[in-house]
Amino acid sequence: MSESIENVLFCIDSSSFIYLHRFYPPDFFKDIWSEFEGLFDQDKIISHIIVFEELTTSSKNKDDLTKWIIPKRKYFKDYNLKQVYYVSQIINRFPGLIDPDREKDQADPWLIALAIEEQSQLQLFNPKQKVIVVNEESKGKPQRIPDVCNYYGLEHLNLLELFNYFGWDFVLRKK
Question: pTM for the whole thing?
């Protein structure tokens, strides 16, 4: 791990939760899911309410990811005026971040706005604290989350980089 977890807050996008569930299923990678539970319990993971809405389904037959996320609702932050301000700045600077023809709110600018807001609040009390955005988008594509994070001085990781950040390694063992 590159630094103390006490100084870091992870702001996670729906793509990372979906990727985690799809490629690291809980019944096979129990240790990873246990570590994520611990990060939630330590208040080290947050996200935006739009991400929560993207991940949950109202159907009677909820998938495993929905069942896992629903009890964690308190870690998904609601809209506020500061975020509205940041979102307008983000969209003006990076119009390709969203699809203007979609009717539903899109999480990307809100997630980044939340990260900016949280980072500014954390650094009021301790300049060493930071927010890291976790997302599965390619770092080479312009007008995407990694590009916007770079512009606003936010660190960005994908899941594999996050595993490496924590120094997690994977051990094969028989049941």
Answer: 0.92
